[in-house]
Amino acid sequence: MGDMAAFIEGLPKAELHVHIEGTFEPALMFEIAGRHGIALPYASVADLAAAYEFGNLQEFLDLYYQGMNVLIAEQDFYDLTWAYLQRARAQNVLHAEIFFDPQAHTARGVAFATVLDGISRALDDGRQKLGINSRLIMCFLRDKSAAEAEATLDQALVYTGGRTDRIIGVGLDSAEVGHPPVKFRDVFARARAAGLRAVAHAGEEGPAAYVRQALDELGVERVDHGNRALDDDALVERLAREGIALTMCPLSNLRLQVIGDMRQNPLRALMERGVRVTINSDDPAYFGGYVNENYLAVQEALSLSKAELTAIARTSFAASFLDRAEKDAFIAQVDAYAAAT
Ligand SMILES: [Zn+2]
């Protein structure tokens, strides 16, 4: 292992942008399909793994939603989450703020509570058995209606009884173009009034204007992706001034052709202009790597220094939704590691 790879492996970090449904590895998908007697249209795990080499966004989404169809029972959601937590912990992720898409399951007739019970039980076990801390962020599918998002928020508030220790916030994901953030202004306002934090995918494929809308209309505290913010100088200055962090996903950007080459990754350009950035895996089973592979890909392409990597890891905790004392404790671990390495 190279010097930088070893440094990244050991660096304590938080992951702030990972979709639990996007961590579904082919072997586990086969296992769960078999459990339910569902025949996948692939002869073997290797065949399915080959299909993960999709060529474009639509092929990815087709595979992504097809994969989810085998998630039916509470144990399925547990196993999916548990597998991610083990991988993340092995990469020295100490805290994860994990997205889930309840509408992708409730639309198939799976109860909201089945999804949440399974994920939550795994998160509790992760905390106790693996020492990995976590929170959940419930995403609305932006290509569905605002009314469906409202109904999903109702289900969440009933489930949590208004407590935010489990679901800490709401987000917005799926196909961006044609589905501007403003469509979800009212449901985000209601979520924030209920004490939930707010994030949204914006400026991945959509324009810089969507990033502005996410800030102004949805009141988001972080922007997921945000690459296209660089098209708008005043917006970049505002992100820096207001301390809005971007959760960037380099390998995802490459696979979905948001960038043509890793050297085009805007991470350093944004850092140099004072914008807070973090490195995350998005849908790691599909995009070629978990969080450390993402750190390493950017490090190699942009020749990031250990000091820059350390700053990004610090930001990953500082921009999390943990409370002040929790953040400080994690950041102290980052600093101790950097000082000793
Ligand atoms: Zn994402």
Structural write-up:
This protein has 341 residues and is α/β, with parallel strands linked by helices. The chain has one domain (3-24, 71-335): Alpha-Beta Barrel (TIM Barrel). The protein contains 17 helices and 8 strands. It has helices spanning 3-10, 26-35, 45-51, 57-68, 74-90, 102-106, 112-130, 146-160, 185-193, 208-218, 233-242, 250-255, 267-272, 284-287, 291-302, 306-318, 324-340; strands at 13-19, 93-100, 133-141, 167-173, 197-202, 222-225, 245-248, 276-279. It has an 8-stranded parallel β-sheet with strand order 1-2-3-4-5-6-7-8. Helix 1 (3-10) crosses helix 15 and helix 5 packs parallel to helix 7 (112-130). The mean pLDDT is 95. Zinc ion (ZN) is lined by residues 17, 19, 173, 201, 224, 282.
Oligomer: single chain
By DSSP, the count of extended strands is 8
- Unique ligands: zinc ion
Low-confidence stretches: none
**Shape assignment:** globular
Q: Please name the CATH topology.
A: TIM Barrel
Give the overall average pLDDT. 95
Number of continuous helical runs: 17
CATH class identity: Alpha Beta
Residue fraction in strands: 5-15%
CATH superfamily membership: Metal-dependent hydrolases
**Helical residues, percent:** 40-55%
| SS-based class | alpha/beta
What is the rounded distance between the termini?
Answer: 15 Å
Label the CATH architecture: Alpha-Beta Barrel
**Widest sheet: strand ordering:** 1-2-3-4-5-6-7-8
Total of domains: 1
SSE layout and pairings?
Blueprint: H1 3-10, E1 13-19, H2 26-35, H3 45-51, H4 57-68, H5 74-90, E2 93-100, H6 102-106, H7 112-130, E3 133-141, H8 146-160, E4 167-173, H9 185-193, E5 197-202, H10 208-218, E6 222-225, H11 233-242, E7 245-248, H12 250-255, H13 267-272, E8 276-279, H14 284-287, H15 291-302, H16 306-318, H17 324-340
Parallel strand pairs: 1-2, 2-3, 3-4, 4-5, 5-6, 6-7, 7-8
Bound molecules: zinc ion (ZN).
